[in-house]
Amino acid sequence: MRNRLAVGRHNQRRLLHISRAWRQADHVIQIDNGTFFRDSPSSAQAASQRPLMTDLSFTLSTDRAKTQDLWAILSPSSVARTAFLQILAGQHFCDPPSARRYPSLTERGIPAHKAIKYVGFDADRGSNVGGNNVRGAYLSARYETRKEETDFSVLDYLTGHTELNALEVEQPDGQERELQRIVEQLNLKDLLHMPVSNLSNGQTRRARIGKALMARPEVLLLDGPFMGLDPRTAEKMATVLFTIAKTRKPQLVLSLRPEDEVPKWITRLAATGEDLNTVSTQDLARSRGRKSGATQEHLTLSKDGHPHDSPALPPGEVVVEMRGVKVSYGDKTVLGDWSQDVNGEQREGLYWSLHRGQRCGIFGANGSGKTTMLSLITSDHPQTYRLPIKLFGRSRLPEAGEPGISVFDLQRRMGHSSPEVHAFFPKQLTVRRALESAWADAPLSKPKLSADADRCVNAILRCFSSQRLLLFLKAIVAKPDLVILDEALSGIDERVRDKALLFLSHGERVTKVENGLAQLSVLEQLGKVCVEGLSQEQALLVISHSKEDVPGCLREFICLPEPGRGTLPTVGVLPGPLELHPRAWKEQIWR
């Protein structure tokens, strides 16, 4: 009798163990009260190393589990969002090591690094596809018609044929079918033979996701998938991701900023602040997703110190003038495929001008020609030389009785910050040297600074410590006639972004805006301000897909139509800061 009872208890424990193991195998990622460090705490700097996250618990079920949760990570901090996803991918030191497990993968003998893929779209990662330098060897390369040996197509990129003299290997049937499925799923068919250097931001994003899917991961971690996308493209991207998420092959985990709209198909949210304390709740996802800027309309002053009703500054002399600009490659027109009314006559191409004192935004869907238009202004586009464009009253080529404007003169009179500039900017320069290069003819040449210029550099270094703002600060420090900010603050943490926008408008004169009041700095009160912010003699051009990144001083705007439709661009004037008139984002700009 005792033997039968003992056998019964043994079988009961065995069944309990099998049941627990089976439940654990339903989890592809399982973290139980883990503390995570960037490096092993046994290293020399262990005493000073703070944990990235403490007491973290998180589970991600397999596709065979009963609960099919679709997760997103929400945080105002890009560091926190990225760290969370990297922890899920197996990076960073876990204490104790047993707190992080991959039961489903372990059961099948699959290494976590092969089954879990991380794809980051954060601003720090540049615009290169897959981290490879396939955008061209220099800034103007993407606009040239000559095809280089390194100009790999999207098909080459997806199949991994991105080496020089790569062997022509026929794809196995299984991989060929997988490629066709991914191409159809991500709507890449029309892009397969296009050089990756010619892709727009949204197209590049789809190509990178496709590349990750070709590895057939179990879990795909997407860091900032909607960052840098216009509202319409973001909606399309959410639809594309949903087609992947509903199949759960692979499972998706997204990271989102507070200003991002949470996709309707997301069911679970892990919200973390800058201190990386984590809370998970579905209700929080919905409340953040429904967050509306309408609550800002009662405020009298924007975060960067501009009144609710503040008209545009009176325009000064012309800085940029385009009279019938039309950019085409063969039979494909990428900018100016419309007719405008000019003094009562219908004329083809883009007619547009920018004056001193104007703060203008260039908006439009990904691929609408914003970057092309900007490249004509900065003279990075070869067609600048033949098109009817005047920069600071002069064309690039000499005209009768008038010399052309040189590239060195343009560089001296323009301050430019963009992801492309960031990708090609020399990385070996110190922060001070990079700021000083705002007065140089070329980034690597050392300029002779005046005493005022040296004081401006010192003022910038006192105010900011974030290296991610370096090119933004370089664009404004020399007080150029034209400041160009192309996605300059995309991906920057909210607190740092607000400080940068305040500095753009007021320099050292204002330290913060709180409860509708601007707090003047001690330097302003003592009359010792070096950097005063934008002046009426300067013009500002802004490209942004997020209304939170738009400076409060912006008043004029042009929104380019999607190419091939022949419709006119939308041109208008805002009544005040976009932050305090949030309805204007959709009702005026994106109508």
TrEMBL record:
Residues 279-312 are annotated as: Disordered. InterPro entries: AAA+_ATPase, ABC_transporter-like_ATP-bd, Molybdenum_import_ModC, P-loop_NTPase. The keyword rRNA-binding does not apply. Residues 29-299 form the ABC transporter domain. Pfam families: ABC_tran. Residues 300-309 have a biased composition (Basic and acidic residues). It comes from the Eukaryota. GO terms for molecular function: ATP binding; ATP hydrolysis activity. Keywords: ATP-binding, Nucleotide-binding. One of its GO terms (cellular component) is mitochondrion. PANTHER family: ABC TRANSPORTER I FAMILY MEMBER 10. This is ABC transporter domain-containing protein. The lineage of its organism: Eukaryota, Fungi, Dikarya, Ascomycota, Pezizomycotina.
